[in-house]
Amino acid sequence: MKKILGFFRSMTFGMILLVLVIACSLAGSLIPQQEAAMVYVKAYGASTAQLLIALGLTDVFHTWYFYLLEILLCLNLVLCSILRFPKTLRAADALKARTRSATPDHPLTAEQGEKLKAFLSSRHFRQEESASGTLYSKSLIGFYGSFLTHLSILLILLFGSLVLMTPEVTDLSVMPGQTLTLKDGTKVLCESFHIQDETGKLDYASVLTVTSADGSQTKTGEIRVNEPLRFGTYKIYQQTYGTAGRIRISNEENGSEEVQYLTEPCFLSIDRRNGIFFDALYPGYYQDEDGNYTLITSAERSYPDPVYSIQSIVEGMSTAVLAFPDEEIHIGNITFTFLSPAEYPGLRIKHVSFWLLGGLYFSFGLMVVALYLCFFAVPVCVRIESDGFAVCSPKSAQGFLLDIEAALDSDRNT
Q: What is the DSSP letter of 200?
């Protein structure tokens, strides 16, 4: 039983688990997560996509083995650090006790003793008087470096897992030039969107400007698949895209105009009786010798010859019509002008709790402090007697002894 417990609390087991967790996290970052199966087939090919799905790498942060790795790593950290905390608490007192009982193996004259005390005071050592001599100590908090390092890793795992597994996910579409308003008042303006770059290569990209609810913070950035825009507690992804019809509605009576985007069947009317009913937008058509049209119902990338399928409704009479860009239909005082379709992005917006994100940042900050304590806050105790001094430290004190020697030599030369 002791051997099993020893293995679970060993550094080797912890490093193996940490490497595996990092590997899973990299897979989750490089491979799009929670997409439809066809997305992976198009990106990686049928056989590779099937393997990725079977291994759970398309939703790695919700797989049983990722949960198991995190549980085992947390157990390892608890056994390595938390259970050793009582020993850590006693470490400073143990070092002081060892220093008090140590033999002063570095001789000093009375004058050198005063100079050494002055040197230690200048280095901000704490002074304690005892029957065995004067004891100076510094950086005893360094004993907590290892414990805080393990604790920070444990907190990073916990908060990081919660951030990855519990975000609020919303899928929204936005037209170029239009603005989305999120629940907390944050605004997302779609500056532009394109499917192909200037060379004709597929490049699904949106330029977004995000503004905080109070207007104090603004960030503009371009997003692509797997290249999200981060803004505060939000991450905005390029999720999908679509093509919307556009129609300009002009009122001859008051001179008003507005452009309406058409993504679903809808009835456009001023008086709720007369107007047009939008059925669908088609990417193209064929026309035979007799002038009959056959509509194309699918397109891979764009709409080269868009056709609007509508119904013109006047005084209860409905007439099926095919309309092309730049054509106009007049119904009463209203003019409907059909425009070229617009491509628009579908955004996936992930929102993480402020407290979880704050906890994650705190954990990283704690790790920085812990690493500083481990490498730079080396505990040292010095006992000075009338004829010599002793130095004790859990690490090599050779460098510190050289500093003392240099300080004493400098005083002699002076």
A: S
